[in-house]
Amino acid sequence: MWDGLSTRLEGRMVALEPLALEHGPGLFEAGADPEVWRWMPVHATASHAAFDAWLADAIERTRAGLEVAFATVERAGGRPIGSTRFLAVRPEHRGLEIGWTWLERQAWGGGANVEAKLLMLEHAFERHGCMRVELKTDARNERSRRAIEALPARFEGVFRKHMLVQGGDVRDSAYYSIVDEEWPEVRANLESRLRSK
Questions:
Q1: Is the CB of residue 142 less than 8 Å from the CB of residue 162?
Q2: What is the C-alpha to C-alpha distance for residues 114 and 170, in angstroms, rounded to an integer?
Q3: Fewer CB within 10 A of the end CB, N or C, for the chain?
Q4: Nearest residue to 86 via CA among 63, 105, 67, 114
């Protein structure tokens, strides 16, 4: 694990806090709408047991240095509204992935995701010297694909039959990336979009 990768990242609307058990009740409530989990590998709020397993796994993977899981919280008041992670952490290759991102439905389109991506990309490129950041989504998830393309991230292709998801469905994954030379343009775009929020 890169030193300092798991730290609080603070913006104007949201903060990303290292995921902890105390975020659990708020995140369970934030994820109550099944539509939040439609394209995710699991429906974590289908039951308290499913959510507890999701939360424990995310915290353990962070503890083991495999990922860095965050709770996305409102800057004013600290109410949890979602979660996101750094995945596929490869310091030896100066790369990582941003994924497992979800927000409560009321936060969709309100700027929280844009600001969270700005915070994470800034952290990756400017503080940790990344040369590549990857993002992927279910190839059928048009809303997520549009959001990734709006960063803008470059489409790299579809991994066919990439994984099994809820109910044993087979998922093809659409892959995207941003490389360090593209970061200044991406940063300027995200900052411009946030000014209108």
A1: no
A2: 29
A3: C
A4: 67
